[in-house]
Amino acid sequence: MNKILILLTLAICASIIFFFPPIKGLGDLAKIIFFHVPTAWVAVIAFFASAFFAAKFLRTFNFSFDKLSARAARLGFIFVLLSTISGAIFSKLTWGAYWNWDPRQTTIFVLILIYGAYLTLRAAVSDEKVRAKVSAVYSLLSVLTVPFLVFIIPRMYFSLHPSPVLNSAGKIEMDSIVLIVLIAAVVDATLIFVQLMRREIS
Amino acid sequence: MKLSNSRFEQIAAIVRKDFVIGLRRRATFAAMMMFALTAVASLSLSTGGIFVEAKFLAALLWVVIFFAASAGISGTFDDEAQAGTLPTLKLYADAQAILFGKMIYVLLSLVALTIFILPIFLILFDVAVENFFLLLATILLGLIGIAAAGTLTAALTTSATVKGGLFPILLFPITLPIFLPAISLTELSFTGGAFDSSSLVVMVAFDLILVTAASILYDYL
């Protein structure tokens, strides 16, 4: 499985770097979008995975679920950082500023804060049983905010979200290939996440 | 101690107990009030004489409330945790009564905080409030949310060995859906603009969700 994933990742990277023409008006660096979308996707998946395992832990008090929940949060934290940084670079290329509290930027920043708070809480509690309970409760509590933020934030701030930009730059002109590669990249990133989650468990 | 039967009596007893302890010791109250006063004074001093926009004032007010509340309520369960009396308390009252008793106590102390700091804030920044009812409604709804999320968060952090700053870190992302509409409604109450009632509905809905979630999740601690 690992070998297949490495090959798939290399193939996707190669096709993005060598075969795609630069996105019109944005230059080669704008191809970072193929890195940004999958990492953002995994960051959100990992968030819900962490909450899911937290719920399973509270139901069963089986500590392997606590470990899974913690690992999903740690991986999610890494992915959310990668996604935020690559998104900021893309934002600089398309909007001219690294950061402007666009709704999506706000939501992803809240995700960073939640992951950071969760991991800080885990680090701050030394008793293993208490830590498992406390962090599971926090994980579930923080999940509740997500639908509200998705609903509230776009109403409070004006969005420049780049889907139209991406469409006019790439998707419409060479839609099927770009879409296929993007979907492949998302699948690849998800599989990498799953593989990292499964490590050491068995 | 008489064993109270109805849950309402248990909740009332816990609120009374915490209130008596709070009055007897005063340190927590005093710290919370002085924190808020210091924050408002430093903000007002540093912006002295400059015209501050209503939107910015609204944000400042909520920043002060958030951090003063954090300073005041982070130790909600510390007395019991330090003395090791939480298990004993759970013999007298059930877990839900303890949670709601604490939550009501926290809400009351936050209301006291606001009664103290809001007039000072309005005077020092020379704010003309156009819609006073909206301001009070927004603050009350915001405080309910902070009390619900804060009580559960305080229960989470009592067992932490490293406490400095942990509480606001945990509380902020959870209460963000409260702050965003609260700040815009507070701004509208200062300027007197027409307000969107759906923001109030969002706050009420999120308050209910936080109270329900705190009630469900507290049983697992």
Cα distance spanning the termini of chain A? 15 Å
Shape of chain B: globular
Name the chain pair whose interface involves the most residues.
Answer: A-B, 30 and 30 residues
Mean pLDDT of chain A: 82
SSE ordering of chain A: HHHHHHHH
| Rg estimate of chain B, integer Å | 18 Å
Fold and architecture overview:
The complex is a heterodimer of chains A (202) and B (221). Chain A has 202 residues and is an all-alpha fold. Chain A has one domain. Chain A has helices at residues 2-19, 33-60, 63-95, 103-124, 128-143, 145-156, 163-171, 175-198. In chain A, 37% of the residues are buried. Mean pLDDT of chain A is 82; it is low at 164-173. Chain B has 221 residues and is mainly alpha-helical. Chain B has one domain (7-218). Chain B is 80% helix and 0% strand. Chain B has helices at 7-25, 27-46, 54-73, 78-83, 86-92, 95-124, 132-157, 166-191, 197-218. In chain B, helix 1 packs across helix 6 (95-124), helix 2 (27-46) runs antiparallel to helix 3 (54-73) and helix 2 packs parallel to helix 6 (95-124). The chains are: A mainly alpha (202), B mainly alpha (221).
Outline the secondary-structure elements:
The complex is a heterodimer of chains A (202) and B (221).
Chain A: H1 2-19, H2 33-60, H3 63-95, H4 103-124, H5 128-143, H6 145-156, H7 163-171, H8 175-198
Chain B: H1 7-25, H2 27-46, H3 54-73, H4 78-83, H5 86-92, H6 95-124, H7 132-157, H8 166-191, H9 197-218
Helix pairs in contact in B: 1-6, 2-3, 2-6, 3-6, 3-7, 3-8, 6-7, 7-8, 7-9, 8-9
Features:
heterodimer; A: 202 residues; mainly alpha; 8 helices; B: 221 residues; 9 helices; 80% helix; 0% strand; globular
